[in-house]
Design brief:
Layout: E1 2-3, E2 9-10, H1 15-25, E3 43-54, H2 55-66, H3 90-103, H4 106-109, E4 117-122, H5 124-127, H6 131-134, E5 145-156
Antiparallel strand pairs: 1-2, 3-5, 4-5
Helix pairs in contact: 2-3
Length: about 160
C-alpha cells in the first residue's frame, strides 16, 4: 500500500485487495445500497484501489462542494434527480467524495470493465442505524482517518446458456 500525493492510500489488485473487497461485500447491510450492482446474484467484485480520507480532506472537500454552482453537483446515490450542493449532512459529503474519487479511477479500471464504485468499510457510524445523524467527519485531529474503503468494479457474470 502506498500513499498518493493527496494523502489517500492506494494499492493494486493483488490477492490482499481481492480478499479485502470480498470482506467488504459479504453480508453488507447498508441502509443505502449505494452500489446495487454489487449485491445481485452472480456479481463479481474486482478491487481497483483502497482509499482512506482524513478529517481535513473531507472538510476541505465539503467546503469545495458548497462552492459549486447549483445544478453542477452530482445526483445522489441511485441517481436521485436533486442535484444540489446546498445543505447536505456529513454522510452525504463523504458519500459524494468517495464516489467522485472512485469515478476518477475510471481510466485505470477501463481494462477490467465497468465504472469503479466506492465500498466504504469504516467507520461503523457511516453505515449503521441513524447514519445521517451519527456519522461525522469531525475528529480530534485533522489527520485522523474518518472514511475508508475500497473502489471496486462490480460485474454481473451471466451463466452460459444451457444446451
Amino acid at each position: 500500500m502506498r500513499q498518493t500525493s493527496k494523502g489517500m492510500l492506494r494499492h493494486g489488485t493483488g490477492l490482499a485487495a481481492f480478499a479485502f473487497a470480498a470482506v467488504l461485500t459479504a453480508g453488507s447491510a447498508f441502509a443505502h445500497q449505494t452500489n446495487p450492482q454489487c449485491y445481485v446474484d452472480g456479481a463479481q467484485v474486482r478491487p481497483v484501489a483502497a482509499f482512506a480520507f482524513t478529517s481535513r480532506q473531507v472538510a476541505n472537500f465539503h467546503a469545495d462542494l458548497m462552492r459549486r454552482p447549483p445544478g453542477s453537483c452530482p445526483a445522489g446515490p441511485g441517481g436521485n434527480v436533486a442535484k444540489s450542493c446546498g445543505q447536505v449532512d456529513h454522510w452525504h459529503v463523504a458519500t459524494i467524495m468517495a464516489d467522485e474519487y472512485c469515478a476518477g479511477l475510471q481510466g485505470a479500471a477501463r481494462a477490467a470493465g465497468g465504472r469503479p464504485v466506492a465500498e466504504v468499510n469504516a467507520p461503523g457510524t457511516y453505515f449503521g442505524d441513524n447514519h445521517h445523524l451519527k456519522y461525522t467527519y469531525r475528529a480530534d485531529r485533522p489527520s485522523d482517518v474518518v472514511l475508508s474503503g475500497m473502489c471496486v468494479i462490480c460485474i454481473t457474470i451471466q451463466a452460459p446458456p444451457s444446451k
